[in-house]
Amino acid sequence: MRAILGIETSCDETAASVVVDGREIRSNVVASQVDIHRPFGGVFPEVASRQHVLDIVPVIQQAMIEAKATWDSLDAIAVTRGPGLVGSLLVGANVAKTIAWARALPLVGVNHLEAHLYANWLYTERPGFPPPEQPVFPLLCLIVSGGHSDLLWMSDHGKYRVLGRTVDDAAGEAFDKVARLLGLGYPGGPAIQKAAVGGDARAFDLPRAMWNEGYDFSFSGLKTAVLHLAQGRGAALKGRQAKGKDSPWKRPAASESPDLPSDLLLADLAASFQAAVVDVLVEKTRRATEEYGAREVLLAGGVASNALLRQEMIARVKASVRFPPPALCTDNAAMVAAAGYFRRVAGDVAMWNLDVEPGARLDEMA
Amino acid sequence: MSVRVRAPSEYNCLLEEGGVSALSERVGATVLSTSRHDTLVIGQRLGQLLQAGDVICLQGELGSGKTCLTQGIAAGLGVARPVTSPTFIIVNEYALAGKRHMLYHIDLYRVESVAEACATGLEEYWSGDDVCVIEWAERARSLLPPEHLWITLLYRGEGLRELQFEALGARPAEMLRGLAGVFDEVGGRPESRPEVPACS
User: Fold this and answer.
1) Of the candidates A175, A116, A110, which has an alpha carbon nearest to the alpha carbon of residue A300?
2) A82 and A29 in one domain?
3) Which of A12, A167, A330 to mutate to test the interface with B (most CBs of B within 10 A)?
């Protein structure tokens, strides 16, 4: 039995987790879930590396306590080394190095994207239930989050090939920005999903960019199309509005603060937008599954929580589809511990000169 | 607010102003981009002019072409990696071949106030010798270095974007003068477009 302490501080979340044998979660703590006294009362943004500094030790302590783990029972420390915000990454990397050095434990550097897909190996033990089967190689992995939209081919542990990625905005970013411009709040994914209930996904014929162009994605134009519809500027798009509905929020060009559309049209717009994103993600994954002969399709990242994406992927892809529970889709440290375990098993242990890589890419990972 | 779409010829000229800023030089220019390609070409030419420590600030609503312009700037600086939106992660870093400085593509969209930008330590990015392109720069105006090139991007109809340049300081004014040639090219002479990488 090998227990790994995972540490994640690449962006907003400060997280720590203990995972056994790369799969069984013993604890999974994310800063926002922990009741920590914050002397600055939440004035500082979550992105502040200073907030990571304040949170990281209590979060690690909590993870160790919940897992009933001792330092001696750990097999290694795994930490995210990139991609991410440099100041934030440094907090995790330095804490990980310090613990590893002080406790004479091996240190493993993990790529954040790789960690996301390893969320599919994780489970929590339930008495009377056997652990779920592991994913079977070769497989295809779609990582869709606020910062990434990547389609990966994975032939074995640590063996990746990037088939496609976004050329502009990430899928989750498109959800967040569209939710904000429609006044639906944050985070955008759940907000759009909720607003889309009862909406007609065919009400607006929104663009599916790069539909026939390889496996890369583009969501910037879709975001702009929704913005212009909401602001009454979508002259070209309105011509393509399927049912010939009038737009009650049509306003003069260049209105800077549009009135928000009525609930019904809001539902149609949210549903049409969601369908456009999902359509592209599923179609490209379906095509890649057939071209490469994947045995499984893994979804990962925050957008993998989207119900329509899950449903359409299962319906349209001719391979078994697997996705983590929502808490493991967003940033967490259990996925870092899992990815770290499989790197450790492969003998990939970091040296003391381990450095953060804010611009790390998966195919550049050794 | 009403909008008058003017012909490219009305835009593509340098305007000199004086005495407004504490800085010795304050130069402005307005150009009409008639396509994504125009915006990329302008960005690319600007990228070719950039030196260590230069700061470019971009202001404009969603979909106004800030990231597209940055993709052009990065291409002009010789960045081969695809340049994508840094919104989620706040800062994307790009190494520049043969240079000691980096390109920092910074996005303050998720930063709500100057206090937040300050708490995040963002000013450290533009305090060194690196090239910084800052989207939603208006959210941290008071933290910005006094010398910078400010570019406001405005939606002016399907495919049309107005780019307003304001150079604060001698070095940004020099950049702007270096752009005069490209301002003549865009919008008017589509047949003589230089090769640029695809934007999407």
Assistant:
1) A116
2) yes
3) A167
Q: In this structure, are A201 and A267 located in the same domain?
A: yes
* Total structural domains within chain A: 2
Assign B180 to helix, strand or coil.
helix
Q: Do the domain assignments include residue A220?
A: yes
Q: Among positive and negative, which fits the CA dihedral A348, A352, A357, A358? A: positive
- If you measure CA to CA, which chain A residue comes closest to B113? A45
Whether residue A191 sits in one domain with residue A275: yes
Any CB–CB contact under 8 A between B112 and chain A? yes
Residues A72 and A96 in one domain: yes
Selecting from A177, A221, A359 the residue whose C-beta is nearest the C-beta of B93 gives: A359
Estimate to the nearest angstrom the gap between the alpha carbon of B134 and the chain centroid.
8
Q: Are residues A168 and A99 in the same domain?
A: no
Query: Do A169 and B155 make contact, defined as CB atoms within 8 angstroms?
Result: no
Contacts of A235 in chain B (CB under 8 A): 158
**Chain A: residue whose CA lies nearest to B94:** A359
Chain A residues in contact with B200 by the CB 8 A cut-off are 167-168, 209-210, 218, 220-221
Residue B99 touches chain A, beta carbons under 8 Å: no
HSE of B140 in the Cβ direction (CA atoms, 13 Å)?
28
- pLDDT grade, residue B193 (50/70/90)? very low
Structural domains of chain B, ranges and CATH numbers in brackets: 2-189 (3.40.50.300)
pLDDT at position A264: 73
> Is A355 inside any structural domain?
yes
CATH for A103 = 3.30.420.40
Q: Is the pLDDT of residue A244 over 50?
A: no
Shortest CA gap B173–chain A (Å)? 30
State how far the Cα of A235 lies from the Cα of B158, in Å rounded to an integer: 8
- Could you report the predicted ipTM of this complex, rounded to two decimals? 0.78
> Is A128 part of a structural domain of the chain?
no
> Do residues A331 and A317 both lie within one domain?
no
Is A132 a member of any domain?
no
Q: Which residues of A63-85 are buried (b: 16+ CB within 10 A; e: fewer)?
A: bbebbebeeeebbbbbbbbbbbb
The model's pLDDT over A289-326, given as tens digits with 9 standing for 90+, comes to 999 999 999 999 999 999 999 999 999 999 999 999 99
Q: Which of A170, A172, A223 sits opposite B62 (nearest CB)?
A: A223
B115–chain A Cβ distance below 8 A for any pair: yes
- B residues 47-66 lying closer than 8 A (beta carbon) to A: 61-63
Write out the residue range of the structural domain in which residue A151 sits. Answer: 139-322
DSSP state, B148?
Answer: E
